[in-house]
């Protein structure tokens, strides 16, 4: 089957090199005109008036007070919000000392009454899989400081391609990974 469709003018005059290259490959294939238009629309789609941002990430913790002490006294985060919710639970967030208006970490009570969540958190921890990661500028320096503070690491600083990582126990049921971009 020979394909001899001419691309619409707005595709031919596109100045974006990546799209031009894709269109050249598409022209050599057996795509129908509708396929090309769809590919162009997907490539060119830019959401309007949408600015999705990360404001809060949640980490399940087995003891909120213990977590607050660990994340502030050992990791150097600052308490941002602490609102009682009843039944020994609170809306408790911490932020980076360097980005106090940046994303908040919600130290969320681990849902012990919801068995699948408890099993999931325990399985991640036992497998050594980090629940989340935090970026650092100098991993070796952070590692040395945290070890002096008694933080236990399951993975010492290790280079892995374009990053250096280390993994520690947050004492609240989670492995947390530190990452330095190289």
What can you tell me about this protein's structure?
The protein is of the alpha/beta class and about 180 residues long. The chain has 2 domains: about 10-45, no CATH class; about 55-180, 2,3-Dihydroxybiphenyl 1,2-Dioxygenase, domain 1. It contains 6 helices and 8 strands. The chain has helices at about 10, 15-30, 35-45, 65-75, 115-125, 140-150; strands at about 55-60, 80-85, 90-95, 105-110, 130-135, 155-160, 165-170, 175-180. The chain has a 4-stranded mixed sheet with strand order 1-4-3-2, with helices on one face. It has a 4-stranded mixed sheet with strand order 5-8-7-6. Strand 7 and strand 8 form a beta hairpin. Residues about 1-15 have low confidence and may be disordered.
Main beta sheet: 4 strands, mixed
Structural class: alpha/beta
Distance between the termini: 49 Å
Task: Provide the CATH topology of the largest domain.
Answer: 2,3-Dihydroxybiphenyl 1,2-Dioxygenase, domain 1
Helix-strand pattern, N to C? HHHEHEEEHEHEEE
CATH class placement of the largest domain: Alpha Beta
CATH-level-4 superfamily name of the largest domain: 2,3-Dihydroxybiphenyl 1,2-Dioxygenase, domain 1
**Approximate helicity band:** 25-40%
Tell the overall outline. Answer: globular
CATH architecture annotation of the largest domain: Roll
How many domains, as an integer? 2
Mean pLDDT score: 83
Q: What is the number of helices?
A: 6
Strand order of the largest sheet: 1-4-3-2
DSSP strand (E) fraction? 25-35%
Radius of gyration: 24 Å
What is the assembly state of the chains in this entry? single chain
Low-confidence stretches: 1-15
The tally of beta strands, per DSSP, is 8
